[in-house]
Automatic annotation (TrEMBL), chains A, B:
Belongs to the bacterial two-domain DSD family. Keywords: Isomerase, Lyase, Metal-binding. Pathway: Aromatic compound metabolism; 3,4-dihydroxybenzoate biosynthesis. One of its GO terms (molecular function) is isomerase activity. This is 3-dehydroshikimate dehydratase.
Length: 609, 609
């Protein structure tokens, strides 16, 4: 099992905050980023003692810059500075220093000189029992690829000199990590892991602002880490993530997010780790809405009009079970500031095993209060604050987790209708938390990313991603959707509305019934439908029918998505009825701007001056 | 005087919000961005009526995409879509449509075909009294430079076809705008203006997310606009700025910011505009602190310890004048949540003219309450919420704005000392507002940008910029400093502390006196000073002396910046004593992380878990 380390530069806070947060998240060690130490009033030896108290090894001191391939005077200066750093390292009790490939304006393009000077520096390190890990920065003045850094280390041929391999520097340049497996493992002194989104920008700002924890970006971290493991590397897996958002986030939370990414990566790579295996997960069991008692009637009216029936009442609590097809919605009345999607219950072959896995992924176990004769469901808190409930695939009377047994049948007959099940839930955590929430749901439930969308909505850009697994009644889809920038007091809808989307087989019929029952569906106005005709998607007559029923239409290359949307209920949730035609894979993101504008208009009379 | 227009896509809100905001800021017209119309429930004719009511001309309908250089079938489709847009334009009452150069996958690299098809499209437009403005997108599939779009328009040779010139598309590619002056003015159908920061990224995301209003970025908008004016272009100057932050900001405020940028640009280009000329502005007259009565004693102790004397008390209000050298600080006691820099008073040859200019730059005039026999100072509200006071260069008894007359001399003698004047004030508006605040101060006061810094501070990245004018006692410096991302509840210091920096000629002497007087100066700890030695900036002995006096040191290629910093007083302001050595031009940004960490430690005991 590899040791897990975290660079202090990743986190927000004072050095003591960062160290405490890393320890609390279960890291075995840290990289000390020198500026964090410089801003600390504690002497290096005191910092070392603090780490020891927290059970953290100091795995690396970083960075040493502009050391090699220098003219004699500059090299002499560099060695003088290096000696000072060695003294600090001794006080810290750390043996390995990271040496970044030179960006010095006087650095020359001469690998022999680089090797010779690194040999000299490594000899001085060895004299003090220290060692140097040489890393090719992707923007190094001359040395900017890992294989060149390795050739120089080979040529320098000193036991106190090895390479540091950083996944960002290697993968951002499109270098092939596979040949790393041929490097002798003991010459890989250190491995730093960072993922990143594909961004069309220079590698330096990309690296300094946009790195992500493994599994949250587009890089093949598994391929990289697999190659490193195959080389026989036995040192720590260490995260070095420069990210503007993480840098200002709660460090305790960010450290958990970081460590979760390593746990998931170990599993992907097939390295022995601590994560219990995932039991088979099927579709949703039910969605739980937390609804203020004042709003419960309105929610009930809407659910009924869309085709669901109130089939059960909880034996002891003001909780109602609504059902239609395979769709189950549990409406829990409690005094809450706004209605919200409080929980997602999934069906699994082994609820306890799934809950244990979630816990190992650093989600807190939640004990749900229940009477002795009520169902005892396994539950954890997801990073976005919602509850993830682990339900049996087939609830059986007599089992402790037989949750339907908590409901007394109302005797209301289930109407035949058009609702097949739950299409998806759309959650709206702050954008800062989407990467973490997404990684948790992927790692825990086995969801895969289907796509990511960015739309120019009336109050700023909105980005969304769809995670999904399974098909048909087993389809489990979670949308995470958030404003990219939302800081001002002007923009409405904080927190942004969530959506409960029902899968239906005839959206026109559902819309007709809902309207007949007096439910107001969102009307985005005539221009939207004129545009459908202008695009050539539908003819005038169909457009008129769609508009009459307030059906919104999106398309992709596989098919069509037709949906109707209710007003926002109880301040934060709307319900959709969704008909997928063909292999449409998205979640109607293109319709979000018109829908948001209509929701806004429903709330205000005239411009919100 | 050119007409001022704004594209609706710039602003946040529903279409009706955007239009109202544009009108309120004094724009003459708008570009209607089609998706804004599609999300509106109003028919195009109703939108036209709304614009007319607001006094806004609809100058452009946009965008038409993928029209030219297409195979016959695709072109037929494009013409069919175009006819639909023409119908919408007729209802809107707009005559010009923006045609973006094709990004269609079937578009061919054939300028003759492009010209031929644009001729056909222009003929159809002309039949309906409409016209087409062809624009080269910087990422057009084949046509991606303005000169190529102009050659195609020339070849197409149709009176209803001209070019649209967008400064972003032209300047982002490094194209020379000078030859634009040779294009016949009447063939330039439209001009769109946008600035942008220099960013090392692909032009498409750069354009879609990071455009800025003129004067807020790095592009030579004056050169571009001058060339357009020289060509004889007589249409509107229209802003088309895609910016993630502006897109979610209060549209009324953003529209003012937008229009201010055009007013300033007109003056720079030398085009007749509405801005009254700037009277000579000299250094600061005084800085006003708003201080809670509970904190007034502490502030007074600190100012006195740093060398200022309480020379005057206001005749009627709890306001004290502190002085040393040319530094004047007015401490106004009032019940406020935190102490803050409430106002900056500048000396000018013509206070009323400066105030009129500020008003023309859309800063609200502020009437300061005063008794009949008290000074009547001209004042406006700056965009960051602080007050800008316009004081006479030499206050003379008898003048209505003789502000020193409001203070009764205390008789306290002024001590000889080391304070020369005000070095700078550092304001900390939210980062979203820095561009606007900066443009206002530059345009109003004639400040120039000296530099911009980004530092990795303990609670996230902090970016700062220094604006300055004048030298010696006439030096006027404003620092705007903010967290780039600060959304979470974890990060402290919202609002971030402001700084009042006094210029001194011997920081060690000032530090010694302050410490002797019992004022706690910030101590960043020993590691910072070890590093100064490691860098070779100072020897061990000097480092020890600096540390003993808690002097922080920064350097640039011109000189050195030595400063001491007090604790944060009254929750939001700290005072610095600053000694500039040589031609150091910055504001000590590099020391900010250590200073912020020390400030944080002074507030909390141990880690903030």
């Amino acid at each position: 099992m590899p040791r897990h380390a975290l660079a202090t530069v990743c986190l927000s806070g004072l050095l003591e905050d960062k160290l405490a947060a890393a320890a609390a998240a279960g890291f075995d060690g840290v990289e000390i980023f020198e500026p964090d130490m410089l801003a600390s009033p504690e002497r290096p030896a005191e910092i070392a003692a603090r780490c020891a108290d927290l059970g953290l090894a100091i795995e690396l001191f970083q960075p040493v810059r502009d050391l090699e391939a220098l003219p004699p005077d500059d090299f002499a200066d560099a060695l003088r500075r290096l000696d000072r750093k060695f003294a600090v390292m001794e006080q810290l009790g750390v043996t390995t220093a990271l040496v970044c490939s030179s960006v010095h304006p006087h650095a020359v393009d001469d690998d022999d000189l680089a090797a010779e000077q690194l040999h000299v520096a490594a000899s001085r390190a060895a004299d003090r029992g220290l060692r140097l890990a040489y890393e090719a920065l992707a923007w190094g003045r001359h040395v900017d690829t890992w294989d060149r850094s390795w050739r120089i280390v080979e040529a320098a041929d000193h036991p106190a000199l090895g390479v540091c391999l950083d996944s960002f520097h290697i993968l951002s340049r499109g270098s092939d990590p596979a040949p790393i497996r041929d490097v002798p493992g003991e010459k890989i002194f250190f491995v730093q892991l960072a993922d990143a989104p594909e961004l069309a920008m220079d590698v330096l700002p990309w690296s300094r602002h946009h790195r992500l924890f493994p599994g949250q970006g587009a890089f093949d971290l598994a391929g990289f880490t697999g190659a490193v493991a195959a080389a026989g590397y036995a040192g720590p897996w260490s995260l070095e993530v420069f990210n503007d958002v993480v840098r200002q986030a709660d460090p305790w939370r960010a450290a958990r997010d970081a460590r979760r990414s390593l746990l998931a990566l170990e599993e992907t790579v097939g390295v022995a780790g601590t994560l219990p295996p995932r039991p088979p997960v099927h579709g949703p069991a039910f969605v739980e809405l937390a609804v203020d008692p004042d709003t419960a009637d309105e929610i009930g009216t809407v659910l009924h009009a869309l085709g669901l029936d109130a089939t059960g009442r909880h034996r002891t609590k003001p909780v109602t079970l609504w059902e239609a097809g395979e769709a189950r919605v549990v409406v829990s009345e409690e005094p809450v500031p706004t209605t919200s999607i409080a929980g997602l219950a999934v069906r699994t072959d082994d609820p306890e095993a799934l809950a244990r896995r979630a816990e190992a992924l650093l989600a807190p176990r939640r004990d749900l209060p229940h009477a002795a004769d009520e169902a005892d469901l396994r539950a954890v808190g997801a990073p976005d604050g919602s509850l993830l409930l682990c339900c049996p695939q087939r609830p059986e009377p007599g089992r402790a987790d037989f949750w339907p047994g908590d409901f007394v049948p109302t005797g209301v007959p289930r109407r035949p209708g058009h609702v097949a099940g739950i299409d998806h839930v759309a959650l709206t955590p702050p954008w800062d938390d989407v990467g973490e929430t997404s990684l948790f749901h992927r790692a825990c439930l086995g969801l895969e990313p289907v796509g990511e969308w960015e739309v120019a909505a009336p109050f700023g850009l909105v980005r969304s991603r769809l995670l999904a697994a399974g098909t048909g009644a087993d389809a489990l889809r979670i949308v995470l959707s958030s404003s990219v920038v939302r800081r001002g007091g002007w923009a409405p809808g904080v927190p942004a509305p969530q959506s409960l989307a029902l899968a239906v087989d005839d959206v026109l019929a559902v819309a007709r019934a809902a309207t007949a029952a007096g439910v107001r569906l969102v009307d985005v106005g005539p221009n939207h439908y004129d545009d459908l005709v202008a695009r050539g998607w539908v003819d005038e007559e169909t457009a008129a029918e769609l508009r009459a029923h307030r059906v919104l239409v999106d398309r992709d290359e596989h098919g069509e998505y037709r949906h109707v949307v209710t007003e926002v209920l109880g301040g934060r949730v709307f319900v959709e009825a969704v008909q997928r035609v063909g292999g449409y894979a998205g979640h109607g993101a293109a319709d979000a701007p018109a829908r948001m504008a209509a929701h806004r208009r429903a709330r205000v009379a005239g411009p919100a001056a």
